[in-house]
Write the structure tokens for this entry.
Amino acid sequence: MICEQTDMKLRRLGLDGMAEAYSDQRRGPGSAVLGFDERLAMLVDRQWEHQENLALQRRLGYAKLRQSAALEDIDWEAPRGLRRELVAQLATGDWLRHHRHCLITGPTGVGKSWLACALAQKACRDGYRVLYLSAARLFRDLLAASSDGSMSRLIRRLTRPHLLVIDDWGMDTVRRSQYRDFLELLEERQDKGSMLIASQLPPDDWHRLVDDPTIADAILDRIVHSAYRISMDGETMRRRRPLADRTPDAATGPEDPKKPAELTSTDRPIKQRKG
């Protein structure tokens, strides 16, 4: 009777993990030989794991990732030149702690969105708040907020995540006013969070997307010049395997997250226009 009451009280207190561990201890013959401190530690550990799992599920729900992907599932056999050391470096989360950005570019079907979601999922597992948006959705929201006067509220919502993922950058025609509002978002997020952008266009081509050279220079200056850059190529993965098994290929990025990348011939700086 006392055991049932204890179980009920634990659950009413919201300690479901501890209640489950308590039930396991009562049923398990090996628990009788453990001391009080050991049994209490097991209860606390189970509750901790339970709450951590719930928190992770909430973060994943908030993130609304487009695909279910994990870095551990990368297909390293695909002949695409993906650098294990760079993936390992990104997996440490240093780029998030230092509010750096990551750019993933390449032709359609090579796994840009999959890799972006895998990095975002790792960030969720590490306790970061993540939000995934397509570029089309982002700019629609900016246009609507500009029209109905809710821009300040939208900027606050988009500043809240530690990592903002923008997929399919450069696919749609965007007004100059929308890029101006996007620049405002970048300024609000400066030194507060990271961005991960996936695009079919290499960064050298991003300048022509914006018909105002001054705004274009300001956007690129805040995103590109100290970002990790992953350049992908090769045949579409949709012809090779299911979506969940897609993999990236070539990558470049800064060795030290506190300083800009050491650029290669394929990672040359963007030539900014004079505005």
In short: The beta strands are 102-105, 130-134, 163-169, 194-199, 228-231.
